[in-house]
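Continuing the series of single-chain predictions for the mutant panel. This is the parent chain; the variants come on the following pages.
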Amino acid sequence: MTSTTAPMKMKKTPPGPLEYLRRWPLQLWLVLVGLFLYIPLITLMIFSFNDSKRNIVWQGFTLKYYDKALHNDSLITAFGNSMTIALCSTVISVIIGAMAAIVLWRFRFVGKTAFNAGLAIPIVVPEICMGVGMLVFFAKVLPWPHDLPWPLDLGNIIIAHVSFSFPFVAVVVRARLGSFNRELEEAAASEFRALMDVVIPHIQPSLIAGGLLAFTLSLDDFVITFFTAGPDTVTFPVKVYSMVRFSVTPEVNAASTILIVVTVLLTFLALKFQGSSALTAGHGADDK
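Parent structure:
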């Protein structure tokens, strides 16, 4: 006698008490927030291909405004200034941020709590306050000459960008140091060799991630740069702002799209180098 068994239907398990992402109200809220954040950017990128000087009506697809943006000498100069500032501030921020993170992680000293709190000030203080503070600093405390040859004329902007970039690097590096096993240092011949052969290789992913984060922050910054730049120094965000003051043309959209693409790529690389856990945060570990 043969018996047939009906296939068992898989029952969908209800979400657990802490599985918030499986609840439809929160999923709907996340979708609405995502649409609110990204629809304006997507619209800007779409209209950068619009074959019309009036940026409110779609007339057809074209790449001529990208050609204009890429052949705009003032725009290219501004982009070169932004890249130079971002590269210089990134290198300095990585060095200072890594040193600050190692000091806070390894040593105990008087005023450590105050130093740690002071390190967070550039992260939490509004950019407008930082910009005004930098304006007063370079006007009264450290006047920066504006007749210097390039790239020395960018020095004040580089200093300003380092001041708000290196705390982000310190936070990323210090988080990486939290997983370091200090017993590994015992195999080194000296403290210097332990730093170079053990500690630095361990924090290398966080150095790369922090550097890319600092580069992105510097490349995108407008407020602090606007307050600290000299009369003859223009960066890419400031140039785009000056173009928007007259009218929002597809050329402005094309230039903004280029900056968005560069920023997104650098942010993705920062998360990639920081580890797969940063990209899959909140999804749980894979079953082995």
